[in-house]
Amino acid sequence: MRSTTLDEGHAPPTGGRTTPSGGRTTVLEGRTKKFGEAATRRVVSAPTGALYEARRKIQPQAVRGRFRTAKWIVLAVTLAIYYLVPFLRWDRGPGAPSQAVLIDLDRGRLYFFFIELWPQEVTYVMGLLILAALTLFLMNAVAGRMWCGYLCPQTVWTDLFLAVERLVEGDRRERLKLDAAPWSIEKVALRTMKHAIWLLIAWWTGGAWVLYFADAPTLVHQLATFQAPPTAVFAILTLTATTYGLAGHMREQVCTYMCPWPRIQGSLTDEHSLNILYRVDRGEPRASVKTSQALRAAGQPAGDCVDCFACVTACPAGIDIRDGLQMACIQCGLCADACDTVMQKLGRPTGLIAYDTEANCRRRAEGKPPVFKILRPRTIVYGLLVAGIGGFMLTTLATRSFTGVNVLHDRNPLFVTLSDGGIRNGYTVRLINKRPFERELGLVVEGLPGARAEIVGAPEGHLAVPADATREVRVLVFAPPGTAGSVPLTFRLADPVSGETASVQDHFKAP
């Protein structure tokens, strides 16, 4: 049998079976060493009969390498953006909020530096969501679960919480010893310090999220003086609890059971997608260092994998990458860093675990050179969709009008017949000024010959609309006698200074 070395904190290899009575069964993993070495056997008892695997705490080993360095850089950049962006200022003029990124629920505005979106422009938000989904599809088709391994908030905050845990309690071996040790003053002190720091990070995480919905310096002052609105405090406490629970305790369980992406991403990849893979053609058959040296000396095949389980102990999900692609694997690359470290110590080439494709695994088994196909129909379609939707959104955003008009026809009555036989219709017209200053706008009604429009309170047709606001006016349209049926009307709003116009169509109702 293949050798298996297990530490606490990791589940035994599969292979046991459930008895019909639902009792306990054993998993036997042994190693038969050749050339006179003694056989080693481990017997692990595992409860069976349960529908789901029991929760097991995973204590990953700290590693160093290019993937770990990339994750640290991404963590620092993303957390800096998340925590600091609410404090960036942007001058929008008098009376306008000066926070660079702000979701103003009271005024119904979304501010992003020089961009201001109104509720009527929610299509831009929908477009961003579609663009984000397509970008995620493209990333997955090119390099697997890159989002999950580096950019996902669950991954980023879990890495941060693990870093705190290592700083307070030590690396994997120290944490395993602390878990197994009886409760003492030192253990209580370490655990208290760790959870206190976790709660502090979780509190500031929830607080930073709320700062995107209110003026950041003002809300921070209110929180410090215990004068913050109850809704803000409730939101912060809720996000504190979720961050503390998900990043501190549930960790990989969120990725495996709560997140739907692992179940979706399989349909978005193909045999040419890059993934963190164990190169079986090079690693097998596995053997210890001494055994592999003896096998090679005897002219027998021996792989580079020495069965050290460094890849397993480094995995934050506690899986064995050598078993192939798995739903719990987030493709973070830490197993590759751990394996490269071992290979360097043994003087063997690195890359036993690395980004590779399933197609190349088969090609190497057939003695063919590897081929990487980044550009293929799947990635081209995703790329064109991302570029097309992104370009369309940028174009419409750059050319959008800052003037708007909405019209609502009176429902009861639809029309009024006057004493001279003429017909009158009433309309409620809302004028929209998206500029940061007050403007004088002119309103005219077109499309009905012989008709005249009267704006209640502004007979000259020029209306002052406040900065970044709307104004509602009452418009009466009079048609000459003999008008019948439904006649289309056009309400046209114009800015005589900038030349901007906006129009909307409605109908004039008559008997």
UniProtKB/TrEMBL annotation:
GO terms for cellular component: plasma membrane. Residues 1-10 have a biased composition (Basic and acidic residues). The chain crosses the membrane at residues 72-90, 122-143, 196-214, 226-247, 380-398. Residues 12-26 have a biased composition (Low complexity). Gene3D superfamilies: Alpha-helical ferredoxin (1.10.1060.10), Immunoglobulins (2.60.40.10). InterPro entries: 4Fe4S_Fe-S-bd, 4Fe4S_Fe_S_CS, Cyt_c_oxidase_cbb3_FixG, Electron_Trans/Redox, FixG_C, Helical_ferredxn, Ig-like_fold. Residues 295-324 form the 4Fe-4S ferredoxin-type domain. This is Cytochrome c oxidase accessory protein CcoG.
